[in-house]
Design brief:
Layout: E1 18-27, E2 32-43, E3 47-58, H1 61-81, E4 89-103, E5 106-122, H2 127-138, E6 142-149, H3 153-178, E7 181-192, E8 219-224, E9 239-253
Antiparallel strand pairs: 1-2, 2-9, 3-5, 3-6, 4-5, 6-8, 7-9
Helix pairs in contact: 1-2
């Protein structure tokens, strides 16, 4: 097998179990105190999504599309032999583009470029290297990204939010006690769960940005057919699920006798 190289970008995350932060302000005119609490829960991923791309070029449109379909067919057959089910393979992107180059003061037609992007979802880390190698051997040109996710995002997001609320209340209680006041009931609560879920680095294929979910994950990006498969010793690390809250509490003045 031809030796290949791999260009990767790994977003490394610390493995602490919980991180918290806060800010606060008081408003003597209204008798309120406002605090912000933040928490992060780190989770081992249980789902891997590999984003593949096939690009073919030919001066004839039908030939360009046929070559693309042939590569996809070979890749799908290889995946099935590895135990990947059809339901775990989804088309992600399709395009056909006539391309021209400016030569000697005129546009010269260089061919039809057919592109097909698809996503393979895996539950077993051990399959990742085999699936990538099989795809490249079948003629797939690109591995646009490898995404590590958790199927229990809601559970861990709720946990992070509860920790953030606890952090905000504890800080508010400490601050008001130091100021000779007591915490009353909350008057406003605002939850913020907006973190990036994933990121595509290949904007030329029409992809940009990320999903607005409370999760930041490890990723491996930009593997081309001239590069290698994914390295065997893959350290998945942990996913950071973050939540933050802004809470305002009313203030109760403590009598001089402390009752």
């Amino acid at each position: 097998m031809m030796k290949k190289t791999l260009a990767t970008l790994v977003l490394c995350l610390p493995l602490a179990t919980l991180a918290q932060d806060y800010t606060y302000s008081t408003n003597p005119a209204t008798g309120n105190i406002s605090v912000s609490g933040e928490a992060t829960v780190y989770v081992v991923p249980d789902t891997i999504k590999v984003n593949f791309g096939i690009e073919t070029r030919d001066m004839d449109l039908a030939a360009s599309q046929a070559a693309n379909r042939a590569i996809l067919k070979r890749a799908l057959e290889s995946f099935r032999h590895l135990g990947v089910e059809d339901k775990d393979i989804k088309t992600d992107y399709l395009s056909v583009e006539p391309r021209y180059e400016w030569r000697n003061s005129e546009n010269v037609f260089t061919g039809y470029f057919s592109r097909n992007g698809f996503v393979v979802t895996l539950k077993d880390k051990a399959q990742l290297e085999r699936v990538v190698d099989a795809a490249l051997a079948a003629g797939v040109n690109y591995v646009h990204g490898v995404e590590f996710e958790t199927s229990e995002l809601r559970k861990y997001r709720d946990q992070a939010r509860q920790e953030a609320i606890t952090a905000a209340r504890e800080k508010a209680e400490a601050l008001t006690a130091a100021l000779g006041s007591r915490l009353g009931p909350p008057t406003r609560i605002n939850a913020n769960d907006g973190n990036r879920w994933w990121f595509y680095c290949d904007a030329d294929w029409g992809r940009s940005g990320g999903r607005n979910l409370a999760m930041t994950q490890n990723s491996i990006q930009s593997v081309t057919a001239s590069g290698a498969g994914v390295p065997g010793d893959i350290q998945l690390g942990k996913i950071a699920v973050r939540a933050s809250v802004d809470v305002s509490f009313s203030l109760v003045t403590v009598p001089e006798d402390g009752r």
